[in-house]
Write a structure and sequence with these properties.
- Pfam families: Glyco_transf_8 (PF01501).
- It comes from Arachis hypogaea (Peanut).
- Residues 1-31 form the signal peptide.
- This is Hexosyltransferase.
- By secondary structure, the chain is of the alpha/beta class.
- The chain has a single domain (82-354), classed as Spore Coat Polysaccharide Biosynthesis Protein SpsA, Chain A.
- 20% of the residues lie in helices and 20% in strands.
- The chain is built from 10 helices and 16 strands.
- The chain has helices at residues 93-106, 124-133, 147-150, 172-175, 197-200, 225-229, 254-259, 262-275, 284-291, 335-340, and strands at residues 30-31, 40-47, 50-58, 64-65, 82-87, 113-119, 138-144, 182-186, 190-192, 209-214, 244-245, 249-253, 296-298, 326-328, 357-358, 364-365.
- Strands 1, 5, 6, 7, 8, 10, 11, 12 and 13 form a 9-stranded mixed sheet that branches. A 3-stranded antiparallel sheet has the order 2-3-16, with no helix packed on it. Strands 4-15 form a two-stranded antiparallel sheet.
- α8 crosses α9 (284-291).
- It is globular and about 55 Å long.
Length: 366
């Protein structure tokens, strides 16, 4: 596994009891790994006058996974990297594992894919889960400083949308290393059933962002009456033809995002939201305010979204007509939860073949 040139990572794994130490360097906005020493607890027992110390390693409630097969490049592959960024959270780790497997399995050049994971807190067991499940995966992990957005987030209609990590995609140009000029951002509740290189190679035509647009959706519903009745705010989209797009699947020109100060533009709308209630959802509406009608449109096949149902009840939904390259369980319902509850939706069975989950048996290892 590779890390930024000036960011060493040291694992002390050969000691007689569980101990983990990582060393890193930081920048003003993020760190790649945080320093931590794994927690251990010591209990004492006394048998026949002989004193023993038993070291128990506390194992977090994090899923276990089967090791994925190794995927190799075909004969026609070059050395060009495909950069994919996703957030990393123990609550969605099962989805992330399935997404990674699906991308590698359907890629003609899987060894060219490099993953850039963002997390808001250091979870060593998550790191080792990835490493053991995908031993040959090219990936880096970056610390997203949650404090950067805590004072900017407004309460939305669903608590999951209010988590700081949900806003990390706004700061990709600040977090990713300089050699990443283009990146595909993906949510953790997706599976890819086509070669991701096809999405990577989309012609941005000078735009900063590419994503599927849905112009049939009622765009006005994403903003409140206060927004549309305000004589200044309601003119935001003048001169544009705004359409809804989902920020769970995006291709970004990282340099252009940085040079165009798009992070600041999104933050400005978040500041307006703190003063006036102009939308109800989380990180999506400020993206729409800045970029709706200004992005490169991608074929709908690359985001068959809404499979998780609505944001309140998560009721089952059917597939939209047409070809499919990416399935996206956006909404409240997640396929792994519905499958575990034995109340799956029909579309959840399309996710199941990529599930690497292996149930935990022990809470403690001695």
């Amino acid at each position: 596994m590779a890390f930024r040139k000036n960011t060493p990572i040291l694992g002390l794994l050969s000691l007689p009891f569980p101990l983990l130490l990582f060393l890193v360097t930081t920048t003003p906005h993020h760190a790649i790994i945080s320093a931590v020493i794994a927690t251990t607890t010591t209990t004492s027992t006394d048998t026949s006058g002989v004193h023993f110390d038993v070291i128990k390693k506390i194992v977090p409630d994090i899923p276990s996974f089967r090791e994925a097969p190794e995927f190799r490049n075909g004969d026609t592959c070059n050395q060009d990297r495909i950069h994919i960024s996703m957030t990393l959270d123990s609550n969605y780790l099962r989805g992330t594992m399935a997404a990674v497997l699906s991308i590698l399995q359907h890629s003609a050049c899987p060894e060219n894919v490099e993953f850039h994971f963002l997390w808001s807190r250091f979870e060593p067991q998550v790191f080792f889960s990835i490493k053991s499940t995908f031993p040959y995966l090219k990936f880096k992990i970056y610390r997203f400083e949650a404090n950067r957005v805590r004072g900017k987030i407004s309460k939305s209609i669903r608590q999951a949308l209010d988590q700081p990590l949900n806003y990390a995609r706004i700061y990709l140009s600040d977090i990713l290393p300089g050699y990443v000029k283009r990146v595909i951002y993906l949510d953790s509740d997706i599976v890819v059933v086509d070669d991701i290189a096809k999405l990577w190679e989309v012609d941005l035509e000078g735009k900063v962002l590419a994503a599927p647009e849905y112009c049939h959706a009622n765009f006005t519903e994403y903003f409140t009456d206060l927004f549309w009745n305000d004589p200044v705010l309601s003119k935001t989209f003048e001169g544009r033809k705004p359409c809804y797009f989902n920020t769970g699947v995006m291709v970004m020109d990282v340099d252009q995002w940085r040079e165009g100060k798009y992070t600041q533009k999104v933050e400005e709308w978040m500041a307006v939201q703190k003063q006036k209630r102009i939308y109800h959802l989380g990180s999506l509406p400020p993206f729409l305010l800045v970029l709706a009608g200004e992005l490169k449109s991608v074929d709908h096949r690359w985001n068959q979204h809404g499979l998780g149902g609505d944001n309140l009840e998560g009721k089952c939904r059917s597939l939209h007509p047409g070809p499919i390259s990416l399935l996206h369980w956006s909404g409240k319902g997640k396929p792994w939860l519905r499958l575990d509850s034995r109340k799956p939706c029909t579309v959840d069975h399309l996710w199941a073949p990529y599930d690497l989950y292996r149930p935990n048996i022990h809470h403690f290892e001695e």
